[in-house]
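Minutes, project check-in
Item: structure for the 154-residue chain
Input as provided by the requester:
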Amino acid sequence: MTEAGLTHGTFYAHFSSGDELTRDAFHHALEENQPGWLKQRTEDWSGRLKRLARQYLSTRHRDDVGHGCPIGALASEAVLASDDFRVMFGKSVENTLRDICADEKEGDHEADAIALLALCVGGINLARAVPDEKLSQRILLICRQRIECFNQCS
């Protein structure tokens, strides 16, 4: 609050609680960051999965925590958050899965979308958490490779 130049009174004039601030910040981050990741839909399903994996599981995304995916950033925190936040977080995950599958006419790709999101969120968090650069790069690479073989497994 001090770094932002705000008093507690100013803060509470805008937000009734820290939880409300977290919800609003999460929603804002989704609106700012997700469309760029999900917007292109010119390729087939396999191509889409590969592109999404390359973008999400990249060194650039790993290193740009402030502009990264809020689902990945807050997944472990959501477990301990208020029920209101968890409901909003769950709806955001559902919307993301729907957006990943959008415009798909060939069968149900929900299982691939769930696996993609889980590998992306888990992979980016592990890659950010380990101090060894070589291991971090290996985590990103292996998660991308596993996503690329989804069509062979399903």
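Outcome recorded: The domain at 48-153 is CATH 1.10.357.10 (Tetracycline Repressor; domain 2).
No further action items on this chain.
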